[in-house]
Design goal:
Layout: H1 2-40, H2 43-47, E1 60-63, E2 66-69, H3 86-95, E3 97-98, E4 102-103, H4 110-113, H5 118-130, E5 143-144, H6 154-161, H7 173-185, H8 189-192, E6 210-212, E7 215-217, H9 233-242, E8 244-245, E9 249-250, H10 253-261, H11 268-278, H12 300-303, H13 336-343, H14 345-348, H15 367-370, H16 375-383, H17 405-419, H18 429-437, H19 444-447, H20 449-490
Antiparallel strand pairs: 1-2, 2-5, 3-4, 6-7, 8-9
Cofactor: heme c
Organism: Marinobacter adhaerens
GO molecular function: electron transfer activity; heme binding; iron ion binding; oxidoreductase activity, acting on CH-OH group of donors
Length: about 500
């Protein structure tokens, strides 16, 4: 009898341990899937700390409304989202509403995240709750002026704009998977779709390109000339992984961040699915684009180049007499050609062909150079290239504060006409200063919102005061009438 009981107890113990192990394995699998979802949704690009601490928050998103700072989303219960329930996270991602009733701004792309499945949100929740707690708040905080600092007003914005997106029909399985990633998890439209007067996405221009601070998120519709219609699916998938393709296109600015923190970690299957979907997005033409932004034929002569040492390479002072090009050797160092020779040719060659052997980009055929919109070229010269994808390559320094605005304009004009196929380029110092500022056009409604809000408040105050005055006047009249009636009754 005792032996039988021991056997039963052993079976129960083994069964319990097996169940615990299975549960742990299930949780581990869910967390691993959640980490993949976090990469696909590009959480780190915004929520990384200024010192690089994952999910610590503090990264400022500069918007036309002001600076919006991403919060701590680590598992810290005091400073992060450690106290969130799964339903709390769902409301954040789908409705833009945090626990306690705090409304979020759509810099947090909940208008696109709202299309995520319950299963993916559950996995993301498991992962975010598993990461180490960052037990401090970001030093910076969201700073918007009146009336944009009234978060309650987002109720009206949400009512007007959430649910406006309509998913395309007729997609095959691969394209549908790509659509889910592009339009929801990766929230590509947040950057690449123009905004209307209320800062909501203009879905009739879906993925047609939009200004983003100093940068321009390009047209990624299927248009052959202005968009990505000339790219092959494999070239697009390679771009998402490497941050470059054919030495003609490099991911810079916010796109560089997206590749660095997110897209390079996706599976090849998912990257190809994204490419397949993007090739189905209705083409949006740009009449100002006279030649194709991306021409794969232009990469062929670049691939045959032998590695070279450019005479303008920045040698040490004691080596200049024996090697390289001294500024005094340039016939006109202040000319656009001279500025290019001093600051650009060491990496990109005198002929602009770059050095594929060393991963230096070609300017001949480069998408930023060939684009009719010069913003990204100027922004790269100003800000440099700070991120690379899965293929490490030399990062480019920025020249903001090192060269004058007119010098940067001269270099950009020279590069566009010499290597970009433009017959003329008229960028000036004011254009460079404007791009460096990160300012962008906003509607009159946004520009004059503070004035309109105060006028509205004044009108409301007047109406309330008028209403109170009328009410008091009527009450006094009724009281007077009752008094007269009582007097007559007494008589």
């Amino acid at each position: 009898m005792r032996l039988r009981l021991l056997r039963v107890a052993a079976c129960v113990l083994i069964g319990g341990l097996s169940g615990t192990a299975a549960t742990a394995e299930t949780n581990e699998s869910l967390i691993e899937r959640g980490e993949y979802i976090a990469r696909a949704t590009d959480c780190l690009a915004c929520h990384v700390g200024p010192d690089g601490t994952p999910y610590a928050g503090g990264n400022a998103n500069i918007t036309p409304l002001g600076s919006i700072v991403a919060p701590n989303i680590s598992s810290s219960k005091e400073y992060g989202i450690g106290d969130y329930s799964l339903e709390d996270l769902k409301r954040v991602l789908r409705d833009g509403k945090a626990p306690g009733g705090k409304y979020l701004y759509p810099a947090m792309p909940y208008p696109t995240y709202r299309g995520m499945t319950d299963e993916d949100i559950e996995a993301l929740y498991a992962y975010l709750q598993s990461i180490p707690a960052v037990d401090y708040a970001p030093e910076a905080s969201t700073d918007l002026g009146f009336p944009f600092n009234i978060r309650f007003s987002m109720i009206v914005w949400n009512a007007m704009n959430l649910g406006e997106y309509e998913a395309p029909e007729g997609l095959d399985d691969q394209e549908a998977r790509g659509q889910y990633i592009v339009d929801h998890m990766a929230h590509c439209s947040t950057c690449h779709t123009p905004r209307d007067d209320m800062m909501a996405s203009e879905f009739d221009q879906h993925l047609g390109g939009a200004q983003l601070g100093s940068w321009f998120a390009p047209n990624i519709t299927s248009d052959e000339k202005a968009g990505i219609g000339a790219w092959s699916n494999q070239e697009l998938a390679d771009y998402f992984r490497q941050g470059q393709v054919s030495y003609l296109a490099q991911a810079t600015g916010p796109m560089g961040e997206a590749v660095h923190y997110g897209l390079q970690y996706l599976t090849e299957e998912d990257r190809l699915a994204m490419a397949a979907y993007l090739k189905t997005v209705p083409a949006i033409a740009d009449d100002s684009q006279q030649h194709a932004v991306f021409d794969p034929e232009l990469s062929k002569p670049i691939l045959d180049l032998e590695p070279v040492v450019i005479k303008a390479t920045d040698y040490a002072p004691d080596e200049l007499a024996q090697h390289g090009l001294k500024p005094g050797d340039i016939e006109n160092p202040d000319s656009p050609e001279g500025l290019y020779a001093q600051h650009c040719a060491a990496c990109h060659r005198d002929d602009g062909m770059g050095q594929p052997f060393s991963q230096y980009a070609s300017l001949q055929g480069n998408t930023s150079v060939r684009s009719a919109n010069p913003r990204n070229l100027v922004a790269v010269v100003l800000k440099g290239v700070a991120f690379s994808g899965s293929t490490p390559r030399p990062l480019m320094p920025g020249f903001e504060g090192k060269l004058e605005d007119q010098q940067i304009a001269d270099i950009a004009n020279y590069v566009r006409t010499e290597f970009g196929g433009h017959s003329a380029s008229n960028i000036n110092a004011d254009d460079v200063a404007y791009i460096a500022s990160g300012q962008q056009p906003v509607s009159g409604l946004i520009r004059y919102a503070p004035t309109l809000a105060w006028i509205g408040i004044l009108i409301l105050v007047v109406l309330i005061a008028g209403g109170i005055w009328l009410w008091l006047r009527r009450r006094n009249r009724r009281a007077s009438a009752v008094h007269h009636q009582n007097v007559h009754s007494d008589q």
